[in-house]
Predict the 3D structure of the following.
Amino acid sequence: MLELIKRLFPFFMSAKPPNIHSLFPRTNDDINIFYWCSRILGLDVGIASMCFLTRLDHCKADRAPKHEFLKAYLTLYWNGKKYDIYIIIHRTPAPDVEVDPDAPKPQRTSTTSLASPQSTISSRSPSPSFRLSEHILGILEKGHPVPANDRVIIIKTGQVKDFDDACTKSFGSYITLNSLFIRDEHTPMSAPQLATVLEVAHNLAPNYSLKQYQCYWYALIVFLIARKQTNGDESNKCIKTLGKLWWMAPTHSADDDENVVQDEYDKAWAQFQKSEDERQCNPEEARRLAQERAAGFERQAEDERNRADEERKRAEEERKRADEARSNEANARESEANARESEANARESEANARESEANARESEANARESEANAKRNEEEALRKAEDEKSKRLELEAEVRQLRAQFGVREHA
């Protein structure tokens, strides 16, 4: 089919891609796989059927936790032109979600499950009782199941540099573990086929499990099914680091589930082709199916919007609590600083008081000493005056005695 398309359309590269959001968004679009798959297998199936996978890279991030993801290179042949399309495919645990048994199931749901119980992604109302530890326990399979959040990032411009930049921005530096090249001599895989693989893989393992159904499993199982369907050429220089956690060894590999996923893919793809044949033969049924798919898409989009709103509200509440905590902490630090300053002032005043008291005691001692010295000086002066008086009296007595003697001599 792909060879026939190439012969019928002598193509060249166009600067203006068609206005198809599921293939050419205006900005890089990070969406849930059900959103993308509903468009590729529904409203955009006519154009998407002319879009084929040409290369699939299995990549691993360098930084912990060593996230693994797929880089899908697709080419659209449309109206005699050729357009390159780049998407990123990866799995993460859904944040703050719970199992909702009443949630509508996605279309083309597989009848087989690798994990039990199945769950669908639904919004969790913010609850004060929810703790991060519950989420972690669910990921470790020790608590309530945590749904897998399988996502597709569509690159806006169709440029390889933008593709690489988007990968680096999302996951940091990374290495390519394995590459699958689908050339003219290989069996083509269309975008609807790729979308079917993504849906089947999710429906078989809808819950995220760190030891079993994590990003390693999802990336590898999609890669294995694409390889089996296309018989493409591989280049696996770094395959030895495939699927290795940075701190523990996983207990389950996608290789164990390849046959199960392949069987479910074959069933889902046959069912899709049958429904497409019926759609082409019955326009009324086609409209009904299109409306159902559109409604499913709207439900998924509404779920995504609600979850985004809740995340924004939670983030705002966290920011307010953080601001309040910082304000209280700042006030506490200011009060503590004031208390320390007051305590220092009190100690300084106490020291000044002690110094003044010591100075008073010293002044009192000096006064007593001065008084004692004054008394001693007064007593000494009195003694000296008494001595002087005694000496004067003695001298006067001697003078009188001499005068008396001389007077007598002269008289004689």
Observations:
- The chain has a mean pLDDT of 80.
- Residues 283-411 form the longest helix (129 residues).
